[in-house]
Specification:
Blueprint: H1 3-13, H2 18-25, H3 31-35, H4 43-57, H5 61-73, E1 75-76, E2 83-85, H6 92-95
Antiparallel strand pairs: 1-2
Helix pairs in contact: 1-5, 2-4, 4-5
Bound molecules: zinc ion.
Length: 96
């Protein structure tokens, strides 16, 4: 079961399951670990994971879906793992 599936189920149920909440707390099993296993943990990656976990713990299904979409679409600098937005490549600090 992917987080996309879990979010769809949470939409139907109106809340996340206890299992979802336990998985969201752990770095490897949250939506970041599922979608970005190769990305180093930078402050930007950490923030996404913390925001996602917070939304799941509060049963904020819409917010969790929003953050999950960002995790899937966002690109990170291959050198420092800071967010570079929707286009893959190095960040301004590493590009020079
Ligand atoms: Zn960089």
């Amino acid at each position: 079961m992917t987080w996309k599936d879990r979010i769809e189920a949470a939409k139907d149920n109106g809340s996340f399951s206890d299992e979802d909440k336990a998985l969201a707390r752990s770095w490897e099993t949250c939506a970041v670990g599922e979608n970005l296993p190769a990305v180093k943990v930078s402050s930007d990656v950490k923030r996404l994971g913390e925001d996602f976990n917070g939304a799941v713990q509060q049963d904020d299904v819409r917010q969790a879906e929003h953050i999950c979409d960002r995790i899937v679409q966002e690109h990170f600098c291959p050198q420092c793992s800071q967010s570079v937005g929707s286009t893959p490549g190095f960040c301004a600090g590493c590009a020079g």
